[in-house]
């Protein structure tokens, strides 16, 4: 028993884009490429809540972007 939802960006830091790098809107698929999958136990309906944190860096310079 599971439900797949389209991922979405709920919060970001910094709140505004850097002058030299805008946060791409499809970054959500970098974080959750298979979508958000919710699973629960059928008997109790209990769902375990988890979170996922990532750091996006520039590949060539290792400069942290977000």
Automatic annotation (TrEMBL):
Residues 1-66 form the UDENN domain. PANTHER family: MAP KINASE-ACTIVATING DEATH DOMAIN PROTEIN (PTHR13008:SF7), MAP-KINASE ACTIVATING DEATH DOMAIN PROTEIN MADD /DENN/AEX-3 C.ELEGANS (PTHR13008). This is UDENN domain-containing protein. The lineage of its organism: Eukaryota, Metazoa, Spiralia, Gnathifera, Rotifera. One of its GO terms (cellular component) is cytosol. One of its GO terms (molecular function) is guanyl-nucleotide exchange factor activity. Coiled coil: none annotated. It comes from the Eukaryota. One of its GO terms (biological process) is regulation of apoptotic process.
């Amino acid at each position: 028993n599971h439900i797949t939802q389209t991922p979405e960006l709920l919060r970001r830091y910094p709140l505004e884009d850097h002058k030299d790098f805008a946060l791409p809107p499809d970054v959500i698929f970098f974080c959750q490429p298979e979508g958000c999958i919710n699973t629960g136990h059928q008997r109790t309906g209990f769902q375990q809540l988890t979170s996922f944190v990532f750091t996006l860096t520039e590949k060539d310079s290792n400069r942290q972007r977000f």
